[in-house]
Design a protein that fits this description.
Carbonic Anhydrase II; alpha+beta; 2 domains; 21% helix; two-stranded parallel sheet; 13-stranded mixed β-sheet
Length: 262
């Protein structure tokens, strides 16, 4: 009995020493054992948009929120809206396939001024087909330029992509589209300027909404340009091979205002 007790005590001691030597204590070990990976989500099946809110309590807004995005743009209220103040600078091309889209992380002091607030451009990414609809019609793709202010609020510029001529501003990105999910890649000697992706016609729609992906947080000032930019059939096809569907269905507008610049 004494020998068995001694072995048990030594075993417990060994665990304690190992934990301490690694900079852990037993409380840390308990917490670590309870930590779970973030729930995986997608666009089809049990992980699809209709089930996002059930995948995690953090995603509850996806099902319960009342100011969700995207929306069907229909019958906006025409208003005399201030023109957007945009100052984009060039940035090294930093690209990642995050498993949900192709994202370009922006590294420069590029800003959008909106309602007296300054928002910094942090990244842009793509959806196929478009997430927002206009009069219940999709576009082949949609580009989202994501800006954030010091308070953590977001302003997102949505730009529709229609089939037409090849988009030269996208060529440097499309040449290095990562085919598999992985870490960010920094492309040597390549810079991009997001201003080249903006439509020449600056009219837009505005409404307040949410992220279009989990956790669907309702903290986004949406600005969706009325006029699309062009992209070739080949460019759409190259993206769609990677992401056949990465667009959330439209959500109810509810009692929100949808404004259109004139």
């Amino acid at each position: 009995m004494q020998r068995r007790k001694l072995l048990r005590d030594l075993s417990i001691g060994a665990v304690g020493v190992t934990a301490i030597s690694l900079g852990w204590n037993f409380r840390d070990l308990v917490v670590a054992s309870k930590q779970k990976e973030k729930p995986h989500w997608g666009y089809i099946g049990e992980e699809g948009p209709e089930n996002w809110g059930k995948l995690s309590p953090e995603f509850s807004s996806c099902n319960l929120g009342t100011a969700q995005s995207p929306i069907n743009i229909n019958s906006p209220i025409e208003a005399n809206l201030d023109q957007l103040e945009i100052d984009y600078q060039s940035s090294p091309l930093r690209i990642i396939n995050n498993g949900h889209t192709i994202q370009v992380n922006y590294q420069s002091e590029s800003i959008l001024k909106l309602d007296g607030e300054t928002y910094k451009l942090v990244q842009f990414h793509f959806h196929h087909p478009s997430e927002h609809k206009v009069n219940s019609q999709n576009f082949p793709m949609e580009l989202h330029l994501v800006h954030q202010n010091e308070k953590g609020s977001l302003a997102v510029l949505g730009i529709f992509l229609k089939q037409g001529k090849a988009n030269k501003a996208l060529e440097s990105i499309w040449e290095v589209l990562p085919e598999k999910q992985g870490k960010e890649q920094i492309i040597p000697n390549v810079e991009i300027n997001a201003s080249e992706l903006l439509p020449t016609d600056k009219e837009f729609y505005r409404y307040y909404g949410s992220l279009t992906t989990p956790p669907c947080s309702e903290k986004v000032n949406w600005i969706v340009y009325k006029k699309p930019i062009e992209v070739s059939v080949a460019q759409v096809q190259k993206f769609s091979k990677l992401f056949p569907l990465n667009a959330r269905p439209v959500q109810n507008l509810n009692r929100r205002f949808l404004l259109g610049s004139n």
